[in-house]
């Protein structure tokens, strides 16, 4: 570095300010391009080309302290050579969970879509921020087109929307938007002087509703959790009771959050009946369809979102009464494989409510005397300034596959789920919690040693220990990943989720065989 500095100083017109040479770039572009080329080769060989290879491990388990040593996490004063950095890239890939593996069933996302992946490569290389048309012309137009198409599938004649960093954020947006609609002055005057605001969500709702209530100052005690039936669906009669209770207490109800596809059981709330109650009491209805929203793409399965009344013609154009909701959260990165993260909040209102609620009118970004139509500067609808172009990966994938291809993904995932359910019924030792209506298959595995045990506290206590042991063994072996949890008084059970189009019938059979193998000595 010292030699280079001397050479620069000896050049004619060399400029030195505060000891820093300002002539020419300081980055070696050729070396950087070579590094990117070699790193991309590693990504292709170790990630993309192995994505559907079932002989590869899902994970290479290491304990945290061991992994810290392997990765050499320390950041030093001097940079390290490219070969060492490339080896770090290999290590990161090796010891990361392969969520694109056909036998990764652990979360509500899985698999790899190649078009979405390329879209992410493009946006990472361009490094855009989606707030004004001048800096992000393509991605703003793409987001507008995608939101319009998603609104069409919800069945609204018009609407608005924005992509957010996660369904949790979309739910928070919706809560704040409902509160702003109920009491617009809150944006400027704050919470003081307001009545006690109350919202309603089912016992099975996503935990983000509780976090949003805390974050927004509504308070977690003011979230009234509505009882659900044995399938995990909100009971409308219980909602009616709780709304009336809140009014008698002198509180001000302002929001109901229904769920279309609960996290654990995959339940869909009865939206029509809930919508009737919301209309009766003048409440904002938000539908958290982060998980289940993609069923709207399927003509066969969109009936799950009760509240969509439709007549279907020979292709995909539909005439809807529409989803009777004021807002909807929908995550294409889940069932449709758009890649994390890809999450939209869609709003039925088209009068600019989103912008009125969230705008701050920053003069350095949203000048009104620009040389183009400033209505395309949509960033003021967001609580963020910098914002990723998450709609682009969904758009490119949709362009490549068409609605037919997306529909096929949904239909196949749910057909595989049905296949697994029927296989579970045939096998000794496997017991369903309930018949699933979506892609969540919840079941217990009862080892041979417990099968003749009398049903009682001791049996359930022992069964509670089975799933964690099997999970530990499958992860240390690297054969697959499958989630488990206790839930609403039920001891630990497995929740298998089918999403990826790389998953086959053979993988469903393997899952059951592997559980039996891992638990044979329990």
From TrEMBL:
GO molecular function terms listed in the Swiss-Prot or TrEMBL record: carboxy-lyase activity; pyridoxal phosphate binding
Gene Ontology cellular component terms for the protein in this record: cytoplasm
Record key words, sorted: Decarboxylase, Lyase, Pyridoxal phosphate
Required cofactor names: pyridoxal 5'-phosphate
Gene behind the chain: Gadl1
Residues that bear N6-(pyridoxal phosphate)lysine: 334
Domain of life of the native organism: Eukaryota
Gene Ontology terms: biological process: carboxylic acid metabolic process
Record note on quaternary structure: Homodimer.
SUPFAM superfamilies the UniProt entry points to: PLP-dependent transferases
Name used for this protein in its record: GADL1 decarboxylase
Sequence similarity: Belongs to the group II decarboxylase family.
């Amino acid at each position: 570095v010292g030699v280079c500095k001397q050479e620069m100083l000896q050049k004619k017109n060399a400029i030195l300010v505060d000891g820093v040479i300002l002539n020419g770039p300081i980055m070696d572009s050729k070396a950087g391009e070579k590094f990117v080329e070699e790193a991309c080769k590693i990504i292709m060989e170790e990630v993309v080309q192995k994505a559907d290879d079932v002989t590869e491990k899902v994970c290479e388990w290491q304990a945290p302290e061991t992994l810290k040593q392997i990765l050499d996490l320390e950041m030093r004063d001097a940079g390290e050579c490219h070969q060492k950095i490339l080896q770090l890239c290999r290590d990161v890939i090796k010891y990361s969970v392969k969520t694109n593996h056909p036998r990764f069933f652990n979360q509500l996302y899985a698999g790899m879509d190649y078009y979405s992946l390329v879209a992410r490569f493009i946006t990472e290389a361009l490094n855009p921020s989606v707030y004004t048309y001048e800096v992000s012309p393509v991605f703003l137009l793409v987001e507008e087109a995608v939101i319009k198409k998603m609104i069409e599938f919800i069945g609204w004649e018009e609407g608005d929307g924005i992509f957010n960093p996660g369904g949790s954020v979309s739910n928070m947006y919706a809560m704040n938007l409902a509160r702003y609609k109920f009491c617009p002055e809150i944006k400027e005057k704050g919470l003081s002087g307001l009545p006690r605001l109350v919202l309603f969500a089912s016992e099975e709702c996503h935990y983000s509703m509780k976090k949003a209530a805390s974050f927004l100052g509504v308070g977690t005690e003011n979230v009234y959790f509505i009882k659900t039936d044995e399938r995990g669906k909100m009971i409308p009669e219980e909602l009616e009771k709780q709304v009336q209770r809140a009014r008698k207490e002198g509180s001000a109800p302002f929001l109901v959050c229904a769920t279309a596809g609960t996290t654990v059981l995959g339940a869909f709330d009865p939206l029509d009946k809930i919508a009737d109650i919301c209309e009766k009491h003048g409440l904002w209805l938000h539908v958290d369809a982060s998980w289940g929203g993609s069923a709207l793409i399927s003509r066969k399965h969109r009936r799950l979102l009760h509240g969509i009344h439709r007549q279907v013609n020979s292709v995909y154009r539909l005439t809807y009464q529409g989803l009777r909701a004021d807002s909807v959260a929908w995550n294409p990165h889940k069932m449709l494989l758009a890649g994390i993260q890809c999450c939209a909040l869609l709003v039925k209102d088209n009068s600019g409510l989103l912008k009125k609620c969230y705008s701050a009118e920053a003069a350095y970004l949203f000048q009104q005397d620009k040389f183009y139509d400033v209505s395309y500067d949509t960033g003021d609808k967001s609580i963020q300034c910098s914002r990723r172009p998450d709609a682009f990966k969904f758009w490119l994938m949709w362009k490549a596959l068409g609605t037919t291809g997306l529909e096929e993904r949904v239909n196949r995932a749910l057909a595989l789920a049905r296949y697994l359910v029927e296989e579970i019924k045939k096998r000794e030792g496997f017991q369903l919690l309930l018949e699933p209506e979506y892609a969540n298959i919840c079941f217990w595995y009862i080892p041979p040693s417990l099968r003749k045990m009398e049903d009682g506290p001791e049996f359930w206590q022992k069964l509670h220990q089975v799933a964690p042991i099997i999970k530990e063994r499958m992860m240390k072996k690297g054969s697959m990943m499958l989630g488990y949890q206790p839930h609403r008084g039920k001891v630990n059970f497995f929740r298998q989720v089918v999403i990826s189009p790389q998953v086959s019938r053979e993988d469903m059979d393997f899952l059951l065989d592997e559980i039996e193998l891992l638990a044979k000595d329990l």
